[in-house]
C-alpha cells in the first residue's frame, strides 16, 4: 500500500507581536492588529564568521563622553522630561492623538534650538510648507537657521540631511514617509520599519538628534510595529483632553534620564507654554465653601499636583440610579461608594451621583480615593469641608486607609499653596517633617476620617 504524506501547513506570524498560527488570518489573535499576519518563511541557521576589527575596543574609562552631553532645548518642561535636554545622536519618538499639539510643540522647540546657531531641519509629510510657516508665524517660531521641507519620500529626505547636515532633525510624522526600496503603503509595518531604521542609522552616524512624531491607535498605543519603540532611545507620550488647555508629556522610555518625570504645558492660540506650577488650573475658586468638594494632592511622576474632586448627589425615583464620572476611573468611584454604604452605613442607593475633577485633569492614582470618599460624604450630608483642608490616601474594600508614597512631599506642596490641614493615612514612617503651623491628622479607616469631619 502506498502511504500518502500530508504536506506541512505553512506557518504565519504577526509582524508586530510575533504571534503564530497555522493558517492566515486578517487580524492577529494576540495584539488584535489588522493586516500584520504574514507567512513566515523558514530560515536555516547560519553562523557568521569573524571580521576584521577596524576600531579596537577601548577601556570604559578612556571613552570620551563629552559628545553625549545634554543640550538644553529652551523649553524647560521638555528638558525635565528628557532628563536635561537633547543628546547628540539620540532618537526620540513623540506619540499622541491627532490635534493634541505635537506639531506646535516641536515647531517651538525647533525655533528655540535654531536660535542657538544650530541648523534644524523640519520635515513635514502631513502639511505643506506654507501651512507650517503660517503656524510658525502665529506662535512666533521663526528663526534663520530653521529649514523646512514638505517631503514624503525617504530618499529625498535623507538627501536633505546630507546636504544640510543639521544638528536636529524633526520628522512629522514617521508614518507619512515611505521608501521606494521596499513594498507597501506609507504607514504600513514594512514601511515604518524601513523608515525608522534608515533615520536611526543616519542619526547615529552623524551625531544628529532626531525627533520622530508617531501616531496612536484607538486604544492609545503607538501605531506601527512594537520594534519601533525598542529601536529608539526615548519614547514620550503626549496626553491631554481636547476640551482642556492642559497638556502632559510623559517619558515612557528614556535611556538618558528618568521615566517618572512629567512636563506640563498650556496650549493656547498663541502657542504652547510650559507650566512650572500648574496646580492652580485644577482647583476651583469659590468665595464660600461648597459641599461636595475636596482637595487632594496627586503625584504625576515625581511632581506633586494639587487637584479638586467634586461630587453631586441628587435623589432619584429610578430603580437604577445613574453613576457618572469625569476625570476619574468609574469603577474606582463605584467601589468608593460601595465602601461608604457598607463600612460607613451611608445610604446612596436612591441617589444619582456625579463625580468629576476640576480643569479636565485625569486622576488615576489610588491616593485620590480618600478625597473621593470625603467629597461624596460631604455632598450626601450637605456639609462643606474646611476651606484649607487636603486629603489623600488609598481606600481598601475593608474600609481601611492605606499609606501612599510621597506623603511628606505632598504635605510640603499643600503648605506652599496655602493649605493648613491635612488628613493622611497612618504610616509607620509617619508624615515626615511637617511645616510649622500645618496640622496633620492620621487616620486608619474611612469611619475615623468621617467622624473627624462630620457630625
From TrEMBL:
Which NCBIfam families is this protein grouped with?
sms
Establish whether keyword Acyltransferase is in the entry: no
**Motif RadA KNRFG motif in this chain: where?**
253-257
Encoded by which gene? radA
Q: Where is the RecA family profile domain?
A: 67-216
Residues bound to ATP: 96-103
Taxonomic superkingdom: Bacteria
Give the domain section of the comments.
Answer: The middle region has homology to RecA with ATPase motifs including the RadA KNRFG motif, while the C-terminus is homologous to Lon protease.
Q: Where is the signal peptide?
A: none
> Which InterPro entries would you find in this protein's record?
AAA+_ATPase, DNA_repair_RadA, Lon_proteolytic, P-loop_NTPase, RecA_ATP-bd, Ribosomal_Su5_D2-typ_SF, Ribsml_uS5_D2-typ_fold_subgr, Rubredoxin_2
Checking Gene3D superfamilies in the record gives: 3.30.230.10, P-loop containing nucleotide triphosphate hydrolases (3.40.50.300)
Q: Which PROSITE patterns match?
A: RECA_2 (PS50162)
Identify the Pfam families for this entry: AAA_25, Lon_C, Zn_ribbon_LapB
Q: Which UniProt keywords apply?
A: ATP-binding, DNA damage, DNA repair, DNA-binding, Hydrolase, Metal-binding, Nucleotide-binding, Stress response, Zinc, Zinc-finger
The molecule here is called DNA repair protein RadA
Q: Which family does it belong to?
A: Belongs to the RecA family. RadA subfamily.
Renumbered to this chain, region (Lon-protease-like) spans: 352-455
What is the recorded function of this protein according to its Swiss-Prot or TrEMBL entry?
Answer: Plays a role in repairing double-strand DNA breaks, probably involving stabilizing or processing branched DNA or blocked replication forks. DNA-dependent ATPase involved in processing of recombination intermediates, plays a role in repairing DNA breaks. Stimulates the branch migration of RecA-mediated strand transfer reactions, allowing the 3' invading strand to extend heteroduplex DNA faster. Binds ssDNA in the presence of ADP but not other nucleotides, has ATPase activity that is stimulated by ssDNA and various branched DNA structures, but inhibited by SSB. Does not have RecA's homology-searching function.
Amino acid at each position: 500500500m502506498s502511504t500518502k504524506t500530508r504536506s506541512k501547513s505553512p506557518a504565519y506570524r504577526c509582524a508586530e507581536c510575533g504571534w503564530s498560527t497555522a493558517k492566515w488570518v486578517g487580524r492577529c489573535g494576540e495584539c488584535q492588529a489588522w493586516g500584520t499576519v504574514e507567512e513566515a518563511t523558514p530560515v536555516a541557521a547560519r553562523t557568521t564568521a569573524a571580521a576584521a576589527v577596524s576600531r579596537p575596543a577601548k577601556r570604559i574609562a578612556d571613552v570620551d563622553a563629552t559628545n553625549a552631553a545634554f543640550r538644553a532645548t529652551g523649553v524647560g518642561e521638555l528638558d525635565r522630561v528628557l532628563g536635561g535636554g537633547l543628546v547628540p545622536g539620540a532618537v526620540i519618538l513623540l506619540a499622541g492623538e491627532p490635534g493634541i499639539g505635537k506639531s506646535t510643540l516641536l515647531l517651538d522647540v525647533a525655533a528655540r534650538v535654531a536660535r542657538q546657531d544650530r541648523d534644524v531641519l523640519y520635515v513635514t509629510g502631513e502639511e505643506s510648507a506654507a501651512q507650517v510657516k503660517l503656524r510658525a508665524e502665529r506662535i512666533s517660531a521663526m528663526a534663520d537657521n530653521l529649514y523646512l521641507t514638505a517631503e514624503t519620500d525617504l530618499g529625498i529626505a535623507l538627501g536633505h540631511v546630507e546636504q544640510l547636515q543639521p544638528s536636529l532633525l524633526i520628522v512629522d510624522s514617521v508614518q507619512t514617509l515611505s521608501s521606494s526600496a521596499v513594498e507597501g503603503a506609507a504607514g504600513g509595518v514594512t514601511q515604518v520599519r524601513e523608515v525608522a531604521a534608515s533615520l536611526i542609522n543616519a542619526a547615529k552616524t552623524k551625531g544628529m538628534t532626531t525627533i520622530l512624531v508617531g501616531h496612536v491607535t484607538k486604544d492609545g498605543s503607538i501605531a506601527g510595529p512594537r520594534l519601533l519603540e525598542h529601536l529608539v532611545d526615548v519614547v514620550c507620550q503626549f496626553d491631554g483632553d481636547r476640551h482642556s488647555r492642559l497638556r502632559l508629556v510623559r517619558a515612557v522610555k528614556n535611556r538618558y534620564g528618568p521615566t517618572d518625570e512629567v512636563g506640563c504645558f498650556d496650549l493656547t492660540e498663541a502657542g504652547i507654554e510650559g507650566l512650572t506650577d500648574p496646580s492652580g488650573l485644577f482647583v476651583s475658586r469659590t468665595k464660600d465653601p461648597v459641599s461636595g468638594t475636596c482637595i487632594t494632592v496627586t503625584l504625576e511622576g515625581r511632581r506633586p499636583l494639587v487637584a479638586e474632586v467634586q461630587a453631586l448627589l441628587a435623589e432619584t425615583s429610578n430603580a437604577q440610579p445613574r453613576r457618572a464620572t469625569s476625570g476619574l476611573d468609574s469603577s474606582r468611584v463605584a467601589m468608593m461608594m460601595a465602601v461608604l454604604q457598607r463600612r460607613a452605613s451611608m445610604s446612596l442607593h436612591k441617589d444619582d451621583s456625579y463625580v468629576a475633577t476640576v480643569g479636565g485633569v485625569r486622576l488615576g492614582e489610588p491616593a485620590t480615593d480618600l478625597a473621593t470618599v470625603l467629597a461624596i460624604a460631604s455632598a450626601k450630608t450637605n456639609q462643606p469641608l474646611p476651606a484649607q483642608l487636603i486629603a489623600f490616601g488609598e481606600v481598601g474594600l475593608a474600609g481601611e486607609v492605606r499609606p501612599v508614597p510621597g506623603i511628606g512631599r505632598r504635605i510640603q506642596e499643600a503648605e506652599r499653596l496655602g493649605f493648613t490641614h491635612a488628613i493622611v493615612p497612618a504610616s509607620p514612617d509617619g508624615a515626615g517633617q511637617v511645616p510649622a503651623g500645618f496640622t496633620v491628622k492620621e487616620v486608619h479607616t474611612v469611619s475615623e476620617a468621617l467622624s473627624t469631619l462630620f457630625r
